[in-house]
Structures are given as C-alpha cells and as structure tokens.
Amino acid sequence: MPINPDRPGAFELGDIILISYKSFDGSGTPKRLSIRDLVQEFSIYESIDGKFITGDMTLLDATNAIQTLPITGFERVEFFFRTPGTKKGFNFSVKNGHPMFVYSLTNRQGVKPRAQMYTLKFISLEAIRNHQTRVSKAFTGEIDQIVSDVLVNFLKTKKDIQVEDTKGAFKFVMPRIKPTSVIEYVRKEAQSKNYRNSGFLFYENAMGFHFKSYEGHFCKADGSPRKVKAFYSPKVKNTGELGIYELQSVEDHKILQQFNTLNNVANGVYASKLITHDLFNKTFNEQEYDYNIEYGKQNHLEQDSNGDKRDNNGILPFFNYSSGETFGSLSEGMTFLKSTTSNVHNTHTQPDQNDILQKRVSQHIAANSLILEITIPGTTEINVGDIVHFSMPKYAEHQREDTKDQDKYLTGRYLISAARHHVSTQNKRHTLVLELIKDSFNVSYPEETMDLYTNNENDKGDIYLASEVDKYV
C-alpha cells in the first residue's frame, strides 16, 4: 500500500457531473450540470453478495438543480475518486470510465428558506439493463464462458471481467429469465478446475466483474496463498506518525458474529444427507457429508507455514458429542433432495450433484460464520475480494511471555466481503468500513475423545397429564 505523505483519509475527487438524457439546446449533446459544490458527502458500496456497485450522495442545493437540469431519475453521474498517490480508484468518467445511473432521489427537505437537502442514489448501468433484458437461450460449454457470454452479450458490459476456470462442459436451457438469474443458476452448479470445491461468487468491484470460487480468493491456482493487501490492527491514535502506521490503524472494530451453531446445524454446515433420484435409470442414491472429513480436502484462508492445506483448523472442532457421534457424523440435521436424471440433454451430462451441493452450502455458510467490521482511514487500494490481515486484541491482562498480546484464534487472514467508502467533502476525509469474514483459524480448536455430553444431565424428567396436574394446582 503506497504511503500518503499528506494525512490518512485524504482523497482526490474530480468534478461531479450529472448528465441528462436531454440534449443541450437541441444540439445532440447531452446536457451536463456540475454538482461538485453541492455534494456534502457520498458513499460507494461493494459486496460479494451485491452483484453491482451502488452508492449515494447527499446534496445541499441552493441552486434549484432539481428543476434546472431537471433531475428526473434517468441521469448518469460522472466523477473520478481515488486515494492520492495510488493508481486504483473509482472511475465513473465518460472519457475512460463507466458513469453510474442515478435511479432514486430520497430524503428531500428544506433546510433554509432558499436551500434544500436531498440524497441521490446511483448504481451500475448493468443493474438497470438487468431488469430490461430476458435471456431465452440454450447455453452449451464451460460455466465460466457462459457467465462471460451473459455479461457481454446480455448485460452489454464494457468493463473488465475476471472469471475462474470451471470444470466440465454442460448444457443449460434458460427460459426467459433475467441475466443475473442465469448467472445465479450456473453459479450454484459450477466447480473449479483447480480446486475440489463448488462455492462460487459473482460480484462487481472497482476493477470490474468477478466470477470466482472461495478458494480462488484464498489462494492461487497452484494452491499457494494469495498475498495480504494490508495489515490492520487497533493502534494508539494521534501519535504524529504518518505513513503505514496511520494508514493501517483501525479506528473502530466490532465482532458482528463469531459463531452460530444452531444455524450451522440446521443448514448442513457440519453434516447433511443428499438424496438423488435418476428418473431415467429409476435409481435413488444417498450420500452423507461430514465437515471434519471434507475440510482437509479444500484450501482455506489459514494454511500451514509452507502454504499447504491443513485439516484441523476449521470452525468445527473434533470431539465426542454423543455416544461416539461427532457433529459431523449426524447427517439427519439437513436433508437435500436433488434430481440427477441422465440424458436430459442427450449427450450432455448434468453437473455432478454428489460433488457440488453439500460442499457449496457448507463452504458458503462456514465462511460467513465469523464476521468482523473494522473502520479504517479510507483507501482505494483495496477492494471487496481482497485478503487483509487483522490483529485482534486479546482483552486480557498482559503477560510478559506473550509478546504479540493478540487473540490467538481471531487474529489472521480475512476476506473482504463488503466495503463502504464514505467521503465527507466538508471534513475533507475519506473513511472506509470493511466487513471481514473468515473460515479457519491460525490456531486449531482443541480436540477431545472423551464423551463429556452423554448422561451428563438431569435424567429424572417425567411425563405428566395436564388433567392430573390441574388437581393439585
């Protein structure tokens, strides 16, 4: 990350232009209106679950720009925004970027006799096209190529597209559905060519559109870990030190969720059963999924010192839960039903559900079981989908032998799952709020073979008839 010689939270912001659908004086040139001096603050949002970049800006308007342009909800907004000294940023310019579409005006209210305040919301133009387009087509081939086809030929994007190689060639018939519905359908059927997984993500960030698996985010195609983009930790504020120290200091942090065992049990993260039915061959098949067994077959955020897979640092410790059963062996908690009928498309086979569905569900929910939120000085050098390191304080009395003084489980590598860039033009400060997720730990949870659950509870409960109880109360 480049060192900013000025101050943390500094930013470069070009002119902000609203571009109307109306031409200027009938010349054929779109009418343009600068609102740079009216904008009090703005935010830009990225998310691995959001598909498109969104944003909003708050204006203090004493020029009646609403009627001057007029603002109707069919405008584009153009501006360029980045951290000084960096090359990466949000380029929404007409000349060499991609303007955003203004789709909503909210919270309009008078604040002075001759001034009003309101919020304009904007989104990528592809999001508008998504609701204007239907896909009726039979796709044949690799899923990564199908996703590229949909983005280029149906969403008409001119942005960069990064796709991870997928395994197998299949045929899918799409019955007049939205482009993102096509991508969502094939996303759930995709398997990586490089890893034994099926958990794919589709989203947009400042660099363009991405179609990648969780493991594709965690490591490279050869299995080596991806580099950490930044190292963040809570630090003493106002030390006078500039550079990396201030840029990577955490102003605020919170653990939004550390675990949810009930949710994980109910949705098949730890264990599940898959029942498949082949109507053509008239056969049924059952398959059980055990998190403890499957975990070591995949790459995770935390690997060993050589960058290789580990099999003991996941979110589910191995222990004797009930009479020799582990949480991973109790597969009746979640049952999936899926058709695997052969010869649906003649020579084209269907994706192998025995190697997809249970892995995808488990991996996705497990990766989102631990969620942190940190607030840091703004930078456009990192985006959703990047890997960062966060050092969690231990919140205990300091021990001299513990030189790091960190939470040994929660400190480590995280995937950025959501980002909110907030810019105050009044305070001249850029703040970045990151949502971080993690699927594994640096230090493994302890294992236990002794049965500490079975018969370790009150066993004197009885059954009573309510009519009998009523006689004594």
Characterise this structure:
With 473 residues, this protein is an alpha+beta fold. Helix content is 14%, strand content 34%. The chain has helices spanning 65-68, 125-132, 143-153, 179-187, 214-218, 244-247, 261-266, 291-294, 357-367, 466-470, and strands at 12-13, 17-23, 30-34, 39-47, 54-61, 75-78, 80-82, 89-91, 100-112, 115-123, 135-141, 161-163, 170-177, 200-205, 208-213, 231-234, 249-250, 252-257, 271-278, 283-290, 335-339, 370-377, 387-390, 412-424, 429-438. It is globular.
Give unreliable regions as ranges.
1-5
Report the radius of gyration as a whole number of Å: 27 Å
The strand count comes to 25
Mean pLDDT: 91
Task: Report the major sheet.
Answer: 14 strands, mixed
Number of helices: 10
What portion of the residues fall into strands of 2 or more residues? Answer: 25-35%
Instruction: Write down the overall geometry.
Output: globular
Structural class call reads alpha+beta
Helical percentage: 10-25%
Measure the end-to-end span: 72 Å
Layout of secondary structure:
Layout: E1 12-13, E2 17-23, E3 30-34, E4 39-47, E5 54-61, H1 65-68, E6 75-78, E7 80-82, E8 89-91, E9 100-112, E10 115-123, H2 125-132, E11 135-141, H3 143-153, E12 161-163, E13 170-177, H4 179-187, E14 200-205, E15 208-213, H5 214-218, E16 231-234, H6 244-247, E17 249-250, E18 252-257, H7 261-266, E19 271-278, E20 283-290, H8 291-294, E21 335-339, H9 357-367, E22 370-377, E23 387-390, E24 412-424, E25 429-438, H10 466-470
Parallel strand pairs: 12-15, 16-17, 16-23, 19-21
Antiparallel strand pairs: 1-7, 2-3, 2-6, 4-5, 4-24, 5-10, 6-9, 7-8, 9-10, 11-13, 14-15, 18-22, 19-20, 22-25, 23-24, 24-25
Helix pairs in contact: 3-4
